[in-house]
Amino acid sequence: MQILIWMGAAAALIGFLGLVVCIIKGLRARRSGLDDTQMRAELQRLVVLNMTAMGISVLGLAMVVAGIMLR
Fold this sequence. Notes:
The chain has about 70 residues and is mostly helical. The protein contains two helices and no strands.
């Protein structure tokens, strides 16, 4: 079960890095001074990235918990 814990930790880290990228892109979009329609389109793309990163993080943490429980 050790491999499940390490794989889960790696997935959680990848998801966390995705969230960091999402924050950075959101701040850049905010500072760029886009008009309303362009900002809306950019934020819609960021929502997809955010949800994907959150999903990967949740799956990774679930893998860690499962690995600990099965240990």
